[in-house]
TrEMBL record, chain A:
This is TRAP transporter small permease protein. Keywords: Cell inner membrane, Cell membrane, Membrane, Transmembrane, Transmembrane helix, Transport. Its main location: membrane. Belongs to the TRAP transporter small permease family. InterPro entries: DctQ, TRAP_DctQ. It is a multi-pass membrane protein. Residues 5-137 form the Tripartite ATP-independent periplasmic transporters DctQ component domain.
UniProtKB/TrEMBL annotation, chain C:
InterPro entries: DctM (IPR010656), TRAP_DctM (IPR004681). This is TRAP transporter large permease protein. The keyword Heme does not apply. It comes from Denitromonas iodatirespirans. The lineage of its organism: Bacteria, Pseudomonadati, Pseudomonadota, Betaproteobacteria, Rhodocyclales. Part of the tripartite ATP-independent periplasmic (TRAP) transport system.
Length: 153, 309, 436
C-alpha cells in the first residue's frame, strides 16, 4: 500500500513538473489493489474484520448446533476458495506457458500479478482449513475471541 | 432455439454496437429464429476486451466483440491494426485487415475460437485547443495517448504524451491537466470533448480493429445449415461495418461542425510525413517481434495498396 | 414474469447464505456460483472460467484504489490528534445548533464527496473519524450511524463521481454537465439531512449532549487553530484536483501523503501509529474490496440470467405516462438496489431504460442525476448495501441495526428524488449557466 501511494505521487510529480509520465501507474496500482485485497484475506479473516451477519450465530449460544452451522459456513467458503484458486492456478499456468505479458510499456508477465492472487487465495484456504478443524475439535471460534479481547487491535 | 450472450465493451450506439445489432438481426433471419443474440453492451457482463480472448476460448461466453489492441501482449499480431500511419485511408485499413486475415484466423484457432467479422474504429486524430497541424503546434502539448507506439511517436515529435484512464480524461480536460487527446472524432464527440476543445486535426493516425469471434466448441456443435447461417450473417456484418465506418467519418465531421468544433483536414504534407517517420520505429519494432510473418504481412499489404512506405 | 421470479430466487439465496452467517463476500460469490449452476445449468468449467475472469478484472482496476487509500487516510487521522482537534475545534461553532457535532457527519461527508468518487470510500473515511468520537460524546447512535450511511452516499452525487462517469460514457451525455448537475441536488439532500437532525434534536434534546457553555472570541480563535490541520488537508486535496494537478483517482494518494506530512509536522506520527494505521486500513479495505469484487461477480451472474434487461423490457411493454414510468423505474431500481452494486445497476439497465426515459421527454442529464440517486438508495438497503457493510466493519454494530438507523435517511433521499422531479431545474440550472 505504501508502494502504491509512492507510485501515484511519483506519477503526479512527473506529470506536473516534468510533463511526462510513468506510463505504467494505473497498471501497477491495479495489481497492487488486487494483491492487497487477496493477500490480506487470511489476516482479515483471523482478526474478525471480514464482516458477516451473525444474528443467527449469536442466538445459537455455544453448543453443538452453533458449531455445525459454523462448520457449514467455513466448509462452503473453503470449497469456494479452493474452486476459485483452482481456476486461477489454471490461468497462471497458462499465462506462464504462453509467455503472455501486459500490453503496456512495462510488459509485465501476466502470471506474476495473477500469481499473487493465487497465493492470497491459497493462504486464505489454508486458514479456513485450520479454522474448520478448530471448529470441529471444539477450539475457539473467530467471533468469540474478538468480544473476549474487547476488539483489541 | 438457443440464446447467445454476447459482450461488447462499447455502447450500443458505437459503430461496433450497431454492427452487433445488425449481425444479430441477420442471424435471426438466416437461422429461421433458431439463434438469438442477447447483447451486453458497455461492458455490462463485466468483461473488458482484454479478458475476452480467454472468455471466448474457455466458453465463458459463446461469442464476443473484442477490441484487439490490448491483446498485443498475448499475441503481437493484434498490434498490427493500431500501428501508427501504416494504413491512413479507409481503403488501406480494409486492405490491411484483408491481408492479415489468414494470420488472424490461425491465431484465433490456437485460442479455441473462430473469427467471424471485424468492425473498424474511425481513424484517430488530434483533439486540441488549437489546430495541431505542425511540429511547432505540437511542441510541449500535454497529449493523452492510449498505447505504447502512440506514446513513442508523439514523444519523438516533441509533444508531452501522458497516459490516463479514459474515465479521467474529461475531468482532466475540464481542469486543464491535459490539453489534447489522440482519439477519433467520433469518440471525442460522444464524450462531449467539444465543451473543452475547439479543434480536431485529422492525421489518420490509425484505424484499430474490433473483432468478433465465436467459441469453437459452440461452432462445432452447430448443424451445417446453422454454420452457414452464421457465416453468411458474419459476412454481411463485415460489409455493413466497413461501409458504416466511411459514412460515419463524414457524419462525425458534420456533427463536429454543428457543435462548433473546427475540423482541420488539410495538414501540410510535410508534417504528416514527419510524424510517419517517427511512427516508423514502431513498425520496425513490431516486424522484428513477429519474425517472418511480420515481413510477409507488410510486404503483401504494400503490394496490394501500391504504397512503398 | 420469469425475470421477476428469478430475481426473487436469487434474493432468497442471498438471504439464506448470508443469514446463516457466511462471510458476506463469500456468501455473494456462493450465490453467484450457485445460481449459474442451478438456474442456468452452466457446466463447472464455464462457471470457473467466468468467476476467475470477473474476479481478476474487478479486483485489478485502478479506480478501486481510492478505497484503500482513503480508508488509510481516515485511519491515520483517527489515530492521531487531528481527529480530536477537529471535534474540539468545531464544538464552539456548533454549540448553539440543535444536533451539535452530529452535523460533522453530514458536512464531513459532503466535503469528502467533493474529493472522492465513490460512496464506500467516503463513508469509510468519515465514519472512521467520527463514529467513535460521537459515541464517546454521548450522541445518539442511531442518528450518528444513520446520517453516516445517508450522507456517505453523497460521494456519488457530488462531483467527482464514478457512477456519473460510467453513465456519461454509456449514454453519451457530457460528464462535465453531469458533474455540474449533481452539485445542487447533493447540497439539497445534505440540507435535508441536517434539517432532519436539527428537528429530531430540537424535539428530543436527549439525542445530543448539552452544549450550554459560553464561548468567547479567544475560544473561537483557538478553535480555528485546532481546525487548521483538517482545513489544510481539504485545501491541498481539493485545490490540487480543481487546479488540474491531480486526477480525481489520484486525489486519495495526495490525501494520504498530505496527512502523513501534517502529522510529521505536528510531531504526532510515530512508527507505531504508522504501522497500526496501515494494518487497520488493510483489514478494512480487504473487507470492502472483497465484497465489491464479489458483488461484481453477482452482477455478472444476474447479467447471464438476463434479470435487469427482462425487467426493464417488461416496464417498456406497459406503455406508461411519463410520471408513471418514472415511478415504475424508481421501484425497479430500488428492487435492483437490494442486491446489486451501483455501477452494475447503471450498466445493465441503461440500454433499455435510457431510451424509455428520453422518449418520455426527460432530459438526459436530469435522468443521470435521477439514476445516481437511485444508486445511492441501493447503497443503504439490505441485504446488499455497501454503506451498511462499511459501517458494520467500522462500528461493529449488526447490519440490521444499521439498516434501521439508515431508514429515515433513505426516506429523506426519496423525498429528495421527489423534489428534483418536481423542480428539475435544481439539477439543470447550474450546467445551463456553465455551458449554455
Ligand atoms: Na464525489
Ligand atoms: Na442495497
Amino acid at each position: 500500500m505504501v508502494l502504491v501511494v509512492a507510485l501515484i505521487m511519483v506519477e503526479i510529480v512527473l506529470r506536473g513538473a516534468f510533463a511526462t509520465s510513468t506510463f505504467i501507474m494505473d497498471e501497477f496500482v491495479g495489481y497492487g489493489v488486487a494483491a492487497i485485497t487477496f493477500l490480506s484475506l487470511g489476516y482479515a479473516l483471523e482478526s474478525g474484520s471480514l464482516i458477516r451477519v451473525n444474528v443467527l450465530l449469536t442466538h445459537l449460544g455455544n453448543g453443538i448446533v452453533r458449531r455445525l452451522v459454523e462448520a457449514f459456513c467455513v466448509g462452503t467458503t473453503l470449497a469456494l476458495a479452493v474452486f476459485i484458486a483452482w481456476y486461477f492456478w489454471k490461468s497462471v499456468a497458462r499465462s506462464w506457458a504462453r509467455g503472455s505479458v501486459s500490453e503496456t510499456v512495462a510488459q509485465v508477465p501476466l502470471w506474476i500479478p495473477e500469481g499473487l492472487v493465487l497465493i492470497g487465495l491459497s493462504i486464505f484456504a489454508l486458514q479456513l482449513l485450520a479454522y474448520l478443524l478448530r471448529v470441529l475439535t471444539g477450539g475457539q471460534l473467530i467471533g468469540d475471541d474478538i468480544t473476549a479481547e474487547g476488539h483489541g487491535e | 432455439q438457443t440464446k447467445w450472450d454476447m459482450p461488447n465493451e462499447y455502447s450500443a450506439t458505437s459503430i461496433h454496437g450497431e454492427g452487433d445489432v445488425y449481425f444479430a438481426g441477420k442471424l435471426k433471419e438466416l437461422s429461421g429464429g433458431k439463434i438469438e443474440i442477447v447483447h451486453h453492451f458497455g461492458g455490462a457482463l463485466g468483461y473488458k476486451s482484454k479478458d475476452q480472448l480467454d472468455a471466448v476460448g474457455d466458453g465463458a461466453v459463446p461469442i464476443a466483440n473484442t477490441f484487439v489492441a490490448p491483446l498485443g501482449g498475448v499475441e503481437n499480431l493484434f498490434l498490427l491494426s493500431s500501428l501508427p500511419f501504416v494504413a491512413v485511408t479507409h481503403a488501406e485499413a480494409r486492405q490491411l485487415y484483408e491481408t492479415a486475415k489468414p494470420y488472424y484466423e490461425k491465431i484465433f484457432a490456437k485460442y479455441n475460437q473462430k473469427l467471424l467479422y471485424s468492425s473498424p474504429w474511425p481513424p484517430s486524430g488530434l483533439w486540441g485547443k488549437k489546430p495541431l497541424d505542425s511540429m511547432d503546434a505540437l511542441k510541449a502539448v500535454k497529449l493523452r495517448t492510449y498505447d505504447v507506439p502512440g506514446t513513442q511517436t508523439f514523444r519523438a515529435a516533441g509533444a508531452a504524451p501522458v497516459q490516463l484512464s479514459w474515465a479521467d480524461v474529461v475531468p482532466q480536460l475540464g481542469t486543464g491537466g491535459i490539453d489534447a487527446v489522440l482519439t477519433s472524432a467520433e469518440a471525442g464527440l460522444s464524450s462531449r470533448f467539444n465543451e473543452h476543445l475547439s479543434h480536431f486535426t485529422e492525421i489518420n493516425y490509425a484505424s484499430p480493429l474490433n473483432m468478433v469471434t465465436i467459441n469453437l466448441d459452440t461452432w462445432n456443435a452447430l448443424s451445417p445449415e446453422l454454420q452457414q447461417a452464421v457465416t453468411k450473417a458474419a459476412a454481411a456484418a463485415d460489409e455493413h461495418t466497413w461501409a458504416a465506418m466511411a459514412a460515419r467519418v463524414d457524419q462525425n465531421y458534420q456533427e463536429a461542425a454543428k457543435r462548433g468544433v473546427q475540423v482541420v483536414t488539410e495538414a501540410p504534407a510535410g508534417y504528416r510525413a514527419a510524424l510517419s517517420k517517427f511512427g516508423a520505429a514502431a513498425l520496425a519494432d513490431w516486424k522484428s517481434s513477429m519474425g517472418s510473418d511480420g515481413e510477409a504481412i507488410v510486404s503483401k499489404y504494400r503490394t496490394r495498396v501500391g504504397r512503398a512506405e | 414474469m420469469d425475470a421477476f421470479l428469478t430475481g426473487l430466487a436469487v434474493l432468497g439465496l442471498i438471504v439464506l447464505y448470508i443469514g446463516l452467517g457466511t462471510w458476506v463476500f463469500a456468501g455473494l460469490m456462493l450465490v453467484s456460483v450457485t445460481s449459474l449452476g442451478l438456474i442456468l445449468d452452466f457446466p463447472v468449467d464455464r462457471i470457473g472460467a467466468i468467476a476467475k475472469s470477473i474476479l481478476w478484472r474487478s479486483s485489478s482496476t485502478w479506480e478501486l484504489v481510492a478505497i484503500p487509500l482513503f480508508i488509510w487516510m481516515g485511519e491515520i487521522i483517527f489515530r492521531t490528534d487531528i481527529a480530536d482537534r477537529l471535534f474540539r475545534g468545531l464544538t464552539p461553532f456548533v454549540a448553539r445548533i440543535p444536533g451539535g457535532l452530529l452535523h460533522t457527519n453530514v458536512t464531513g461527508c459532503t466535503l469528502f464527496a467533493a474529493v472522492s468518487g465513490s460512496s464506500a470510500a467516503t463513508t469509510a473515511m468519515v465514519g472512521k473519524i467520527t463514529s467513535s468520537a460521537l459515541a464517546d460524546r454521548n450522541y445518539d447512535t442511531n442518528l450518528s450511524i444513520g446520517s453516516l450511511a445517508g450522507a456517505g452516499s453523497l460521494g456519488l452525487l457530488i462531483p467527482p463521481s464514478i457512477v456519473m462517469i460510467v453513465y456519461g460514457v454509456l449514454a453519451e451525455v457530457s460528464i462535465s454537465r453531469l458533474f455540474a448537475a449533481g452539485l445542487l441536488p447533493g447540497l439539497l439532500i445534505a440540507g435535508l439531512y441536517s434539517g432532519y437532525i436539527m428537528l429530531r434534536c430540537f424535539i428530543n434534546p436527549e439525542l445530543s449532549p448539552k452544549g450550554d457553555e459560553r464561548y468567547r472570541l479567544t475560544d473561537r480563535l483557538r478553535a480555528i487553530l485546532d481546525l487548521s490541520p483538517v482545513l489544510a488537508l481539504i485545501v491541498i486535496v481539493l485545490g490540487g484536483m480543481y487546479a488540474g494537478l491531480v486526477t480525481p483517482s489520484e486525489a486519495a494518494a495526495v490525501g494520504v501523503t498530505a496527512t502523513l506530512a501534517i502529522t510529521v509536522l505536528m510531531r504526532e506520527l510515530t512508527w507505531r501509529i504508522f504501522v497500526d494505521s496501515l494494518m487497520g486500513a488493510v483489514k478494512v479495505s480487504c473487507m470492502v474490496c472483497s465484497i465489491l469484487v464479489a458483488a461484481a461477480l453477482l452482477s455478472t451472474a444476474m447479467g447471464y440470467l438476463h434479470v435487469p434487461a427482462e425487467l426493464a423490457k417488461a416496464i417498456d411493454a406497459l406503455s406508461l405516462s411519463p410520471y408513471q414510468l418514472l415511478l415504475m423505474l424508481a421501484l425497479f431500481y430500488i428492487m435492483l438496489g437490494l442486491f446489486l452494486d451501483g455501477i452494475s445497476i447503471v450498466v445493465m439497465s441503461l440500454p433499455i431504460t435510457f431510451p424509455l426515459a428520453t422518449m418520455a421527454g426527460f432530459d438526459p442529464v436530469w435522468f443521470g442525476i435521477f439514476l445516481v440517486l437511485m444508486v445511492e438508495l441501493g447503497q443503504v438497503t439490505p441485504p446488499v448495501g455497501f454503506n451498511l457493510f462499511v459501517l458494520q466493519g467500522i462500528t461493529g454494530h449488526p447490519i440490521g441495526r444499521i439498516a434501521y438507523a439508515a431508514l429515515p435517511f433513505f426516506a429523506l433521499m426519496c423525498l429528495g428524488v421527489v423534489i428534483i422531479t418536481l423542480f428539475p431545474d435544481i439539477a439543470l440550472w447550474l450546467p445551463r449557466q456553465m455551458f449554455g
